[in-house]
Design goal:
Elements: E1 2-6, H1 13-25, E2 31-37, H2 49-52, E3 56-57, E4 63-64, H3 67-75, E5 84-86, H4 87-100, H5 110-129, E6 133-138, H6 148-161, E7 168-173, H7 186-197, E8 204-209, H8 215-225, E9 232-236, H9 244-250, H10 253-260, H11 271-282, E10 285-293, H12 303-316, E11 318-326, H13 327-331, H14 337-343, E12 346-349, H15 358-370, E13 375-378, H16 380-392, E14 400-401, E15 411-415, E16 430-438, H17 443-448, E17 452-459, E18 461-463, H18 468-473, E19 476-481, E20 487-492, E21 500-503, H19 518-534
Parallel strand pairs: 1-6, 1-7, 2-5, 2-6, 7-8, 8-9, 10-11, 10-12, 12-13, 13-21, 14-15
Antiparallel strand pairs: 3-4, 15-18, 16-17, 16-19, 19-20, 20-21
Helix pairs in contact: 1-3, 1-9, 4-5, 5-6, 7-8, 11-12, 12-19, 15-16
Glutamine binds near residues 379 and 459.
Length: about 525
């Protein structure tokens, strides 16, 4: 099943793909979802979150497009790094094969060599994972130059896979004009034409629009797309992305897809999902979370964290209301941190890289720690929580991470030994899930209620083991460690502070609508306790 997009990017293909995955899975089909990204980066790990949003990390350590996060959350299943195919990966392997002599004597070209590589990857992924249906989302917009080899590959697959084995879904935008309030279909018509120009006739058109698709608009789009009217689906704005599968289901979307694929229609079991969406609706008690980071101008930079808060909120009947705090603004005196500490029920110190904004984050950590308000530090946020503790509780003046100050007198955070001899920056961090042993009797243990957990990593720096005894003597508890003894989770005694937790891994990546991350549940619970006490 191929999903293409038209008119503009961010049109919501990822959510359509994820929703369709959920709908088919709820009918007992074994489904996989792949994101194709036409950029030349081999993976998303080397891209600035400002440009592309969060880097999602898979269980096996892939640094992938954030759409994989949506897929995992909607499908409620782990995907491997092979589920994100980039032009970079494809070209790299074609060029490597050429150097090995695998194409000896041939002129290596986009067609057939690059397109064959793309098709091979899709087919072997479907084979290896044993799925009934593989959903393939082609990133970017139809008409982009770099997307052409991928569209050509899927065009060929339609012929090669035989009738009834492929379905093409095109997602495009019908803007509503603010001046006249009219729903305009021309952009959709043109993007379908663009798709046809390269040989792909969509089977279904999904129209993104701010309000339900009007009958006249639907009729026009169907006419220009050479489709029956019922093959045009309205994907109008709703209050939460988690309602999208239900909107699509109401219009019989998955039955239409199954009919095209000549697969049997089965009844869907969406009970759990519907209950989750109802719980999201009902969750009304506001809980204010200060989100402190340096990529706050693009909210997608922290999308898994935002979603994890929603999952936990739905379970607890709380509605997280986020106060975004740009850490560089703190440094420039542009935010009144005291009033933020007053206003917020809890804070999250967000992941990140590099020096900019870090002093602002450290100051925020101090204030939240001293005010005894729930604080969660994730990855970089955990490292800075340790720096703050070293400076202000241990009195280690100028303590820092060597990432931020290579000559610091007190390198409480330092490069992981395994990172010392790295010469390539792509895909070389400590990545993916690995076991973490929790210390009985700690906050971390009480959250997870088990001795060993697996969370996903993405970092190069760690708590410096030389400082660990000093930090522990001063009251910082190491409640989680890796089998090799790396510090994974830190916390304060609950008699000292109701909830101060720092996690080197990113628990947000594994939070799912129906199984929220224990860490986010714990944070929200602690925050709501404080709210109750205050009343
Ligand atoms: N910059 C830090 C490191 O590399 C933290 C990374 C992160 O927050 N993901 O260790």
């Amino acid at each position: 099943m191929f999903i293409t997009g038209g008119v503009l990017s961010s049109v919501g293909k990822g959510i359509v793909t994820a929703s369709l995955g959920l709908l088919l899975k709820s009918r007992g089909y074994n489904v996989g979802a792949v994101k194709i990204d036409p950029y030349i980066n081999v993976d998303a790990g080397t891209m600035n979150p400002f440009a592309h949003g969060e880097v999602f990390v898979t269980e096996d350590g892939g640094e992938t497009d954030l759409d994989l996060g949506h897929y995992e959350r909607f499908l409620n299943q782990n995907l491997s790094k092979e589920h994100n195919i980039t032009a970079g990966k494809v070209y790299l392997s074609v060029i490597e094969k050429e150097r090995k002599g695998e194409y000896l004597g041939q002129t290596v070209q986009v067609i057939p060599h690059v397109t064959d590589e793309i098709k091979d990857r899709l087919r072997s992924l479907a084979g290896e994972t044993g799925v009934d249906i593989l959903i393939v989302e082609i990133g970017g917009t139809v008409g982009d130059i770099e997307g052409l080899p991928f569209l050509e590959a899927i065009r060929q697959m339609k012929m090669e896979e035989g009738d009834g084995n492929t379905v093409f879904i095109h997602v495009a935008l019908a803007p509503v004009l603010s001046t006249t309030g009219e729903q305009k279909t021309k952009p959709v018509q043109h993007s379908v034409q663009e798709l046809r120009r390269i040989g792909i006739q969509p089977d279904i058109v999904v129209v993104r629009t701010s309000r339900p698709l009007e009958p006249e608009a639907r009729r026009k789009i169907a006419l220009h797309s050479t489709l029956p009217v019922d093959m045009v689906i309205s994907n109008h704005d709703v209050d939460t992305i988690y309602r999208v599968p239900l909107v699509l289901e109401e219009q019989g979307f998955s039955s239409k897809v199954l009919a095209r694929l000549r697969l049997e229609e089965r009844s869907a079991d969406l009970d759990g999902w519907v209950k989750f969406v109802e719980a999201l609706d009902r969750a009304s008690a506001p809980i204010r979370i200060a989100m402190i980071g340096k990529y706050t101008k693009l909210r997608d930079s922290y999308i898994s964290i935002v979603e994890a808060l929603k999952h936990a909120g739905a379970k607890l009947g709380l509605r997280p209301s986020l106060i975004w705090v740009e850490s560089t603004d703190i440094e420039h005196g542009m935010v009144d941190l005291d009033s933020i500490v007053d206003e917020a029920d809890a804070a999250i110190i967000l992941p990140g890289f590099g020096r900019r904004g870090t002093e602002g984050k450290i100051e925020a950590i101090r204030l939240f720690r001293e005010a005894r308000k729930p604080l969660l530090g994730i990855c970089f946020g955990m490292q800075l929580t340790v720096v703050e503790y070293a400076r202000n509780v241990l009195g280690l003046d100028g303590a820092n991470s060597t990432e931020l100050d290579p000559n610091t007198r007190h390198p409480v955070i330092d490069l992981l030994p395994s990172q010392r001899n790295i010469d390539r920056l792509g895909g070389s961090m400590r990545l993916g899930a690995s076991p973490i042993h929790l210390k009985p009797g700690t906050l971390a243990y009480s959250l997870y209620s088990r001795p060993v957990i697996h969370e996903r990593h993405r970092h190069r720096y760690e708590v410096n083991e030389k400082y660990r005894p000093m930090l522990e003597d001063a009251g910082l508890i190491v409640s989680g460690e890796s089998p090799e003894g790396l510090v994974e989770i830190i916390e304060l005694d609950r008699r000292e502070h109701p909830f101060l937790l720092g996690t080197q891994p990113h628990p947000e990546y594994k939070s799912r609508p129906l199984s929220p991350s224990p860490v986010f549940l714990g944070l929200l619970e602690a925050a709501s306790q404080r709210v109750k006490l205050a009343h």
